[in-house]
Design a protein that fits this description.
286 residues; nine-stranded mixed β-sheet; four-stranded mixed β-sheet
Length: 286
């Protein structure tokens, strides 16, 4: 069976607490709810792509702890090809600590765990799209970039969490996907909107760039001009966790089908808007 989207990325167990508001420095609050759920940018993006109907393989690492067993089983259950998901002995599974307030806003702190040991043990495979992000080591990202170049796959790089400066391999991205905060950090610019997007593409050399704007939609620089993706009205935001990952996963799925980047981003934006209406980072099964 061929692979449409190969995701090289992180797999986490999310520890989620619900609070009325996010605490300030030095402040202690009582949470109203606690839950364990599935996460990791790479895994979330892979599941979102699979939910969009394409064939997806996940390259990553989990520990030999209970969390690793749960996360591996969840990815299998989502229909992913997990032959390249390694289970490492004596290493904890990556963990994300997430606070979600009554408006659906969140703060996230990630402990890499097994994600710090991701490698790319992929041999004879020719995906249509390769996806990677920054919750894994730079060496693993570079391996993903090299695989895309070797096989002629389209390369989607999600620059999250944003590095202090853009690495040289961002120039191979088509597209590079960021939010506004990440774009500003990568460019050290106080520009906004289309000007910030153009500055990011100039700074990184990426073939195309997509900048998500949350409730204001998205902007796409396709290499020729900047296109505005209109916002989608959401009546009630439950949890914004994973909305950006849903965007990236669906974007990759649509690119694998042959959509142009603007059309792919438009579909991804609609799905990301829907993602804030459920609790947790992953789209629920149909």
């Amino acid at each position: 069976m061929g692979i449409d989207v190969l995701v090289v990325g992180s797999v986490n167990e999310d520890i989620v607490v619900s609070v009325e508001r996010l605490p300030g420095p030095g402040e202690t609050l009582l949470a109203s709810e606690f839950a364990l759920s599935c996460g990791g940018k790479g895994a979330n993006q892979a599941v979102a792509a699979a939910r969009d109907g394409v064939r997806v393989a996940m390259v990553g690492s989990v520990g030999d702890d209970d969390a690793g067993g749960r996360q591996g089983a969840a990815l299998d259950g989502a229909g992913l090809d997990t032959r390249w998901l390694r289970r490492l002995t004596g290493v904890p599974t990556g963990t994300a600590f997430i606070q979600v307030d009554s408006r659906g806003e969140n703060t996230i702190v990630v402990v890499q765990g097994a994600n710090a040991h991701v490698t790319l043990p992929v041999g004879d495979v020719e995906p249509r799209v390769v996806v990677t992000q920054n919750e894994i080591p730079p060496a693993a990202q570079q391996e993903a970039v090299a695989l895309a170049a070797r096989t002629g796959a389209r390369l989607v790089i999600n620059a999250a969490p944003a590095p202090e400066s853009p690495p040289p391999w961002y120039g191979a991205a088509d597209p590079l996907v960021v939010n506004e905060h990440e774009a500003a950090q990568l460019t050290t610019s106080d520009e906004t909107g289309a000007e910030l997007l153009r500055r990011l593409r100039e700074r990184t050399g990426a073939r195309s760039v997509v900048m998500t704007l949350g409730e204001r939609g998205a902007l796409v620089d396709d290499g020729t001009e900047v296109h505005a993706i209109p916002p989608v009205v959401v009546e009630q935001v439950v949890d914004a966790t994973g909305a950006g990952d849903t965007f990236v996963g669906v974007l990759a799925a649509r690119l694998a089908r042959g959509d142009a980047v603007v059309a792919a981003a438009s579909a991804a934006n609609r799905c990301a808007a829907k993602a804030v209406t459920w609790s947790g980072a992953r789209p629920p099964a149909d």
